[in-house]
Amino acid sequence: MTMPELRFEVSEYETRLTGTRQAMQKTGIDVLIATDPANMAWLTGYDGWSFTQHQCVIVRMDGPPIWFGREMDANGARRTAYMDDSCIRSFADYYVQSDQCHPMTVLGQMVADEGWGSATIGVEKDSYYFTHAAFEALAAAVPNVTFKDATRLVKWQRIIKSPREIEYMRGAGKIVTAMYKRVAEILRPGAKQSDIVAEIYQTAIRGVDGFWGDYPSAVPLIGAGLDASAPHLTWSDRPIRANESIFFELAGVHKRYHCPLSRTFYLGKPSQKFLDAEKAILEGMEAALEKAVPGSTCEDVAGAYYRVIERYGLIKPSRTGYSIGMGYPPAWGEHSASFRMGDHTELTSGMAFHFMSGLWYDDWGIEITESILITRGRPECLALYPRKLIIIEC
Amino acid sequence: MTMPELRFEVSEYETRLTGTRQAMQKTGIDVLIATDPANMAWLTGYDGWSFTQHQCVIVRMDGPPIWFGREMDANGARRTAYMDDSCIRSFADYYVQSDQCHPMTVLGQMVADEGWGSATIGVEKDSYYFTHAAFEALAAAVPNVTFKDATRLVKWQRIIKSPREIEYMRGAGKIVTAMYKRVAEILRPGAKQSDIVAEIYQTAIRGVDGFWGDYPSAVPLIGAGLDASAPHLTWSDRPIRANESIFFELAGVHKRYHCPLSRTFYLGKPSQKFLDAEKAILEGMEAALEKAVPGSTCEDVAGAYYRVIERYGLIKPSRTGYSIGMGYPPAWGEHSASFRMGDHTELTSGMAFHFMSGLWYDDWGIEITESILITRGRPECLALYPRKLIIIEC
Predict the structure, then answer these.
(1) B54 to each of A204, B57, B60, B160, how far by Cα in Å?
(2) Structural domain contains residue A292
């Protein structure tokens, strides 16, 4: 079996491992079981659409991480992860969606065999795909283990991006810029939403400038007319209508690294409500991005935005941004820092955020966002698409 | 707020509710909390990319189902679900990815307020997105509730398709047929995998014959050359190579209903190993599909396939099919019946399966599958693409 084509140097994976082990030591965790697919990929390079099944990466204090998953996906681990075959373990297929047995029982047996039957083990209690049944089966198999919640441990390790990660995210930024250029070319009254999205996908996956497009952790989200009151609806074959707004939340993606971006288009002459909201949002974002520098906190950035839009009579009960980097379905947020009141995370060069300034009300909504890299100076916008309400004349 | 455009008659949702309540009664469950997004959609019509957050549909013995989720997504429920506003409840945004509090605590409070604080409540312990932390928070909020596992309850309710569901799946079958026709048009040595996938998406989302394309629960899966040893890898910009096989696992999708289909292409003159495997698979599928009639069991179908391929010296340690219908990421399988030894589910007209005959070995793999509808007679193939190894001359 040939060596996989890794996306990072083995030394970078080893640096990530060292950091993770330090965090484990700080929190008294002997062994970490990471089930979040982005954490698994970040730790090992493993990349596959296998989070339909129970699987994990085990981080131990001695020795490389261990990949554990469904037998048929072990070959995927051999093709993508940096560890050798002794670190790739699996469960047989009859455990899959069985009423009689659970794959996490096999994991528990392995934990015992490795001598960790009385250890303190970190599990990602609130990460996607770590079900209650998974925990029950694991805990039953190793009743003397002390389990500790480690949901955010690896996620916090991921927050500062390396040069190569930044390179991938800049590539993703080029891709999403191209996606919006394509939208602007074809968005016209009468066009079907599904035809627009088909073109978005074509541009997204083809990629740009040698950066091929990976699948986004979330599909294109659309809010047209009354549907713009909801932030997370998808498309149908409904036609684009004149004298209506439509927003998109899209992401360019390269090697699992995301650059999300939202833009709102108005077909026709925008109502004063939209123009006022645009003014408020753009002024708010300027104020917030002034604060998006090392030494500020996430709360500083969020507060600057909320204060401006409140002056315009607009409220936003939701957070106004979150850390981004690599992601797997269903989400591209890293689940560490958020731009919200109460989040005192201090910004550092190398962090990246989707400044998610969107506003949604009873019968309308507007999204104009920016994905930014915190630098030593002013934040760098990862995409380069005009930050404004885009008017399509018709 | 206008009435949402429902995908099924309200009477069909009410029939589903009746069946679900009967199943609850049989298993002693007073209240059901359904967290699987496909179950939520099947019960209420709710459709949104909000399974990034904790959310659920509550089925009670009196009154319509209740949708519960993030505040900003409640508007999505108002746009897509059939129940009125009194059945749409939510939690505030500060509960999202907070270290201090959990949205399921709010759900627990609601359960208590509804008078269910000592009830027997079914939860989907092993469904995607129902995390261990979610259960912990819920259980802590209502300590006198008896929880029972109901992971498969709604999934088994979904196994027999209604006429309209079948209509959507037939539409999905037309879409996936068109997707493979497009692949055959453009698959050539030197073409980039990403460019092929870009075209697949364009065809998939445009749709066919008035059936617009919805997003698939899983992205296109590809196995080229050595990567064909793994069933669940995705693409890169690697070029298609001559004298190599490449399989795709794709799905056409309409209104969340899936028609999956896998095909293997060989660029050049196939090796004898591939021709022998094709022969075995096709003969095995013929034998298995002969059994895919009412009265047979899933084990009968699976056994017929395994016996044939074993005669050819091939083994398949994994199940050879699963129930299909509606789906949300990360998977399109319904998690009820599977074509495997030990599954004694009796086939009935209206069931649908992806006959997943794929074989993966150390350094090669081949997938030629079929999505079928069980009828009163012979099974109906939902897609109409030649069932064979597709040879591309070059």
Answers:
(1) 29, 11, 19, 28
(2) yes
Domain that holds residue B93: 10-157
Q: Which residues of B touch A139 (CB under 8 A)?
A: none
Contacts of A136 in chain B (CB under 8 A): 125
- For residue A358, the chain B residue with the least C-alpha distance is B72
CA distance A346 to A352: 13
Do residues B72 and B201 both lie within one domain?
Answer: no
Task: Express each pLDDT in B107-149 by its tens digit.
Answer: 999 999 999 999 999 999 999 999 999 999 999 999 999 999 9
Using CA atoms, how far apart are residues A244 and B80, in angstroms rounded to an integer? 20
Rounded to a whole number, what is the distance in Å from the CA of B351 to chain A's nearest CA? 18
Residue B15 pLDDT > 70, yes or no? yes
Q: Are residues A128 and A68 in the same domain?
A: yes
pLDDT band (50, 70, 90) for residue B49: very high
- Render pLDDT for B356-375 as a digit per residue (tens, 0 to 9): 999 988 888 999 999 999 99
ipTM: 0.96
Lowest-pLDDT range, B92-96, B100-104, B299-303? B92-96
Residues A208-235: tens digit of each pLDDT: 999 999 999 999 999 998 888 899 999 9
Task: Name the helix (H) or strand (E) containing A305.
Answer: helix A298-311
3-state DSSP percent of chain A in helix, strand and coil, to 5 = 35, 25, 40
Residue stretches of chain A with pLDDT short of 50: none
How many domains, chain B? 2
H-run or E-run covering B18: helix B10-26
The amino acid occupying position A145 is V
CA-based nearest distance B44→chain A, Å:
15
Inter-chain contact B214–A199, Cβ cutoff 8 Å?
A: no
Domain membership flag for residue B3: no
Question: Domain for residue A225, yes or no?
Answer: yes
Residue in A with minimal Cα distance to B318: A93
Within this chain, do residues B134 and B204 fall inside the same structural domain, yes or no?
Answer: no
Mark which residues 205-244 of B lie under 8 Å from A by CB: 205-207, 212-215, 218-219, 221, 226-227, 229-237
pLDDT at A346: 98
Q: Which of A92, A127, A157 is the last residue of a domain?
A: A157
Scanning the structure block, which residue is given the tokens 């009151």? A229
pLDDT at position B305 over 90: yes
Contact B72 A201 (CB under 8 A): no
* Domain-ending residue, one of B123, B157, B191: B157
CATH number at residue B142: 3.40.350.10
A227 and A291 share one domain: yes
For residue B344, with 0-12 CB atoms within 10 Å meaning exposed, 13-18 middle and 19 or more buried, which class applies? Answer: exposed
A364–B contact, CB cutoff 8 A: no
**Which tops the pLDDT comparison, B41 or B359?**
B41
Task: Write out chain B residues lying below 8 Å of A205, CB-based.
Answer: 194-195, 197-198, 201, 235
pLDDT in tens, B215-232: 999 999 999 988 888 999
The answer to whether B234 contacts A226, with C-beta atoms less than 8 Å apart, is: no
- For residues A151 and A173, membership in a common domain is answered with no
Contact between B367 and B373 (Cβ < 8 Å): no
User: How high is the pLDDT of residue A2?
Assistant: 62
